[in-house]
Amino acid sequence: MGPVTFDDAIEQYRRALDEFMKGNPTPAMQLFSHRDDASIANPYGPPVRGWEEVAQVMEHAASLRRDGEVVGIETVAQYATPALGYIVQVERLKAKIGSREEITPYTLRATMVLRPEDGIWKVVHRHADPITTAQPAESVLRQ
Known about the structure:
This protein is α+β, with helices and mostly antiparallel strands. The chain is about 25% helix and about 40% strand. The protein has a single domain, classed as Nuclear Transport Factor 2, Chain: A (Roll). It has helices at about 5-20, 25-30, 50-65, and strands at about 40, 50, 65-80, 85-95, 105-115, 120-130. It has a 6-stranded mixed beta sheet with strand order 2-1-6-5-4-3, with helices on one face. The termini are far apart.
C-alpha cells in the first residue's frame, strides 16, 4: 500500500530521492501520479505533461546520477487539505553527475504538489532547479 497521509508521502519521496541519487528512478516513479495531468519541470529541459513524458524525464535525470545520496532537506513551506497538498523544500544532494568521476555536492529548490488518488497520496507535479540564492533581475534574460 502507498502513502496514506500527506506526511507519509513526503517521507517516502525523500527516501525515494536517495535512491534516485544512486541512479534508480523506480521508487520515485512509483510515488508519482501516472495520470495524463502529471507534470514535471527540471533543469534539463522544458516542463512536460502526461505520465509517459514524465517517466522519460525521470529516467533520463536518474541516468545522469551515480553513487549519490541526500545530504539534507530543509522544508520551506508545506500545506495539505484532504484533496491537495504542496511542499517547498531545499534539497542538499551529492552524486557523480554525468561523466564526472568525483562526487559533487549540489543544492536544488523543489516544489511538489500531491493529491490522493484512490486513497494513496501521489506526486502530481514536481519542479526542481538549482536557483537557491538571490539572482539579479537580468538573470531572467537569456544571453
